[in-house]
Amino acid sequence: MGIRNETLALPGIIRKSWQQRSNLGWLACTACTALLLSIPIITVLYSVLLPRSEVWLHLRSTVLPGYILNSLVLAAGVCLGTSLLGVTTAWLCSACNFPGRRFFSWALLLPLAFPPYIIAYTYTGILDFAGPVQTLLRSVFSWQYGDYWFPQIRSIGGAITMISLVLYPYVYLLARTAFSEQSASLREACHTFGASAYRTFFTVILPLARPAIAAGLTLVIMETLADYGTVHYFGVTTFTTGIFRTWFGLGDRIAATQLASILLLCIFAVILAERYSRKAVRYQYPVKPRKNRYYQLSGPKAVLAVFACGAPILLGFIIPSYQLGIWTLQTAPEIIDMSFLVLFTNTVLLAAMVTVAVIVLGTLLAYGKRVGTHPFISHAVNFSATGYAVPGIIIAVGVLLPFAWLDNTLDAWLQQKFGISSGLILTGTLASLVFAHVVRFMAIGLNSVDSSLTKIHRSIDDAAQLLGNKTFDRFAKIHLPLIRSGIFAAALLVFVEVIKELPATLVLRPFDFNTLAVRTYELASDERLADAACSALLIVVISILPILILNRSIAHGGVIHGSQA
Amino acid sequence: MAAKLEVRNLSVNMQDDSILRNVSFTLEPGRIASLLGPSGCGKTSLLRAIAGFLPVSAGKIHVHDRLLSKTHYTLPPENRHIGMMFQDLALFPHLTVSQNIGFGLKSLNRNDRQVRTRQVLELTDLDCQGEKYPHQLSFGQQQRVALARALAPKPEILLLDEPFSNLDPDLREQVATGVRKILKHEDVTAILVTHDQHEAFAMADEIGVILDGSVEQWDTAYNIYHRPKTRFVADFIGLGSMVPAKVLDACTLETEFGHVKGEFDPEFTSGQEVDLLVRPDDIPHDDSSPITALVEEKRFRGSEFLYKLRLISGNFVLCYAPSHHDHQIGEPIGIKLDLEHLVVFERKHPD
Fold first, then answer.
1. A407: helix, coil or strand?
2. A275, A288, A461, B229: least surrounded by Cβ within 10 Å?
3. What is the CATH superfamily name and number for domain B5-234?
């Protein structure tokens, strides 16, 4: 009976009561914030309507098909790689018992700490002609240059491998949760019909986990399409590198934005497809599932399982960390100086500003959604959180265009009226950079606060209200204490994401403002891989933090935050 | 302290659905009422309209002659002096029992707040639990905390939204009786929503049976059971069956048990075909009776058997017999018809 919907029927009394008026204030704030956050995406979508330029026509007839093809191959390859790695390991860790299962089940998340571009730089260093692997091969077999064939890491295949190695944990995590939530009776029922473990897996277990795997793959596709560092370094031309080149190389901002809009539409299509597939198949268990018993593995099967789970961790985390560690030891004395400290402070400062803004605005939006269940509000809020699905480069483009226009307009007006110049107060300062990051990572804050809030039953609000509390009081005394841990987790995630972020920072940073990620990129682009290791390793170390938290919150039956892109 | 609650011609619509239609009743100070009805009948909505969570489309709600709701006007819940106990209890998980109870006592000074908190803790048998958190208590204790919290600000009206539905049926009656004692001690006007008639009987002074958003009958428990006004109430409350009868005169019916005398609704005229409600307790088992019926089904209930009997006409009646009267299925047993007040409905033709 209408526990959810009654506030819908309120318009008639809004004028009458103070209570509803204070809600109205909250709703107005929510709507404005949501609108503000939607500016970049609206800008990019709007660019579709602008007239096509010469450059655009040139792009379309020359490089655009290549961008599309490469992006598609990349996304498909990474999907294949991550689902192989992710689903296998998830199944082993959730259904089988073998030596080291408990260790593997959290260590498999570790590669997530590597941003794709950093693992790409590291492996390039390892596998290049002058790297330790080829050097070793040459010295063992006394080969010379040209005597042997060695796979070229700087290729689309290399990019697929690198990105898969660090993104499979998304699939692993969601699939593992789905597998372990399946009721034991389901598996037992299959066995009573004489189905083997193998057949049970392919006919029942896997199809049931399909929505979760699809959700994981959607995240993987977003991250892959958003990647700039890896593909740029490997010389693979995709949409992101194309947008960069059009903007900076060809200097056509409109054409770059139009290019971005195509990528954006593709991403929306992926999201819609995922949502649709989730809607079409909704599996629900009427009763609380019983815990599954593990298949006990021993002998060769156990060895195989250890290998299957160990290899991704070895390749995706241990080897690159080891290499970064060695490089860091070699170069630290030169690299770590005052300028490195400034770099570090800059990065932390930027991340802290973005985090605070995301948490405050995210809480405002999530609470606004709770107070005003008007469909418009929740649509607006949801739309403002789509930034997480949108590559940083697109957001950067969407921020630069309107902000540059604002800067110029303001400056011109001030010049004319007062004869003073405001300079570029938005695009020339941290303002646009912070704003872009807030747009990009709002979903993390919002989803986290939102899911913590949803866990608080509505009757708690009602009880507090009956006991005499106004909206804001209710928020401060009841909701805030209850969502504190959700807010903390979200803050950490956002903080780390900002530190890892590369393309948007690269485009939007003010002159002379560098972050760890950008510095790593610059050094690696100059082929100074060893020198890049200090900042890269620091990024990886910081990125491990939320993984530990993530793992703990899953162990406590928590919800995975920010995974509903 | 206790206040009179008056609901007049109340209607509630949600989107385009009519949830409540023309509901009226008055609850005198200190009385406990129960809203009884199948799920989805609107009883919880009625409660939420009284609490101020649902705006009303028509009609008025008064407490103590103070207007709470009318069309386009809803006094906010926090200004109504109404307490509520929720189905899921809605205890604040991050506050201790005492803090939960003190939550609604903001207007009191520190000392008074402590005194009142201690008072309700004692009243609800929670003397030593004040410093614990809700999750450290048993479910029964949590329920009492919810009751204590709702009672602490001395509300004029207390609303209880199926708070005992998570208990075993046996325990439910017992708890309801205990809560009734506490409510009477606190002298509060209260409304309990439930779908369990035994809970309603154990707790309430008067009962409102609700069907499809309207009050079918508002009466004492005794009258609801023995003098149901509609066929639905007769069906919904207790067991029973309908036996065809014909009106002979203002106080006599002709049935297959012979002529039955008693008072009934005067609007039925002689010669009219009617249905007579027969409760199992209206049909005492009597081996010496000339009227017999065949045992069709039987259910052992410990202290008694509930027999479903087939009359000669093919109609069925229910009958309680002491449990040592163990008859076999198919066996004829003697019964009497022992009715004081005749509950008669227009004959329903099977369609």
1. helix
2. A288
3. P-loop containing nucleotide triphosphate hydrolases (3.40.50.300)
